[in-house]
Write a structure and sequence with these properties.
The protein has 15 helices and 18 strands. It is α+β, with helices and mostly antiparallel strands and about 425 residues long. The protein has 2 domains: about 15-40 and about 80-305, BirA Bifunctional Protein, domain 2 (2-Layer Sandwich); about 320-419, Anticodon-binding domain (Rossmann fold, 3-Layer(aba) Sandwich), CATH 3.40.50. Helix 5 (about 135-150) crosses helix 10 (about 220-235). Bound molecules: histidyl-adenosine monophosphate. The site of histidyl-adenosine monophosphate (HAM) has 23 residues, from strand 7, strand 11, strand 12 and helix 12.
Amino acid sequence: MTGQPLPGFRDFYPEEHRALRGIFAAWREASRRSGFAEYEGPELESLDLYTEKSGDEIVGQIYHFRDKGDREVALRPELTPTLARMVAARHRHYRKPIKWFSIPRLFRYERPQRGRQREHFQWNCDMVGEKSAAAEAELIGTLVLGLSLLGLGPSDVVVKVSDRGWWDRFLEGHGVKENQKAEVFKVLDKLEDATEDEWNKKLGSLAGPVRQALGAKDAHSSGLEEVRQGVAALGYAEWFEVDLRVVRGLAYYTGVVFEVHDRAGKFRAVAGGGRYDALLKKFGGEDLPAAGFGMGDAVLAELLAEKKLVPAEVPAPGIFVVAELAQRPLALQLVGSLRRAGQVVDYDPGHGKWAKQLELAEAKGARWALLAGREAAQGKLTVKELATRKQGEIGYEAGPGGAISLVPGVGEWPKVIAS
Ligand code: HAM
């Protein structure tokens, strides 16, 4: 035993978990404001869900095993096949377009490196049943809203948008057969860091035409243009860039695809997605257009750390109850009553000495110490603002069932100590 988790797996100590929750809060808020409903699927799926739908790259990274019922099962490496399966099974129940989001934890056996883990959380937003470019624009608008809620702006990140349909036509025009396309997309997806030699080796006679196409300023498609206009109308023109180098590694994309990258190009993609119009049909016959994206927490957290934007929730108790031993029952009544009234309240369960309890209140970062000392027997308590050390006296009344009311209430305490 090393005290460490498995390679590529992460422990989230409370301070790290706090940052993660801040990211989740922004994702949820952006989804909520944009009208996406939350859903969840199982962590474990049948292996063939992925071998048939995701494409070689992800399949090579799957954690899979045979379960006790002799089924080949897999820890989910992505959510899209699950979403497609779920929607295909019940789509008649839902008014189109279906707009759903989820924040699953996913598992991929990758080589762990900065921003790449063997598990990660991924915000997924998907829209099913909308074939117009409004779907991609809405998805990009939602992901940009999520990023901006975290404090990022268009000078920090860019949404690079491309079109697999355009690439399809291009490859067809250069004699690439249907069954070879997936292989070429995989090569194109990894070209970013390749040298000229590697280009020639990997793409052969296609290297020249591809290079030319990427260099052409007007290489465009009408689909891309419509998405660009939609994103601009939503107010996010500055975040948007056409970049045909984005092709996406996954097999199921059929049209416009996009990735979010940091402007400086230091990190891997923060998010990726696109249109996948043929996937739903594979699950149940109904031909439903779909598009969506996934945004991982790991690269995003690296980027936020670099920009000094790590979200910090205030975890500190508002009130820390400090009591003499004789007032211990009263202290617990205060804790219970105040919590029921919506306050964040903590105390020293070991009931250390008075000074130790106060020390703990400071260490926990509480705003107020509520002190039950000797005068508590006369119905009096002291409130102390720990940062300013100012204090004042308040009264309390015990009601039925151990309920305690404070006079004046918590909202009035700043006045009590000011006087
Ligand atoms: P993906 O590009 O494989 O797409 O993943 C989306 C994002 O998840 C990546 O841009 C990255 O931020 C994060 N990510 C992926 N793998 C890892 C990893 N090993 N460690 C840390 N972060 C990672 C999909 O998964 C698609 N299913 C997205 C989608 C939803 N397309 C349509 N709907």
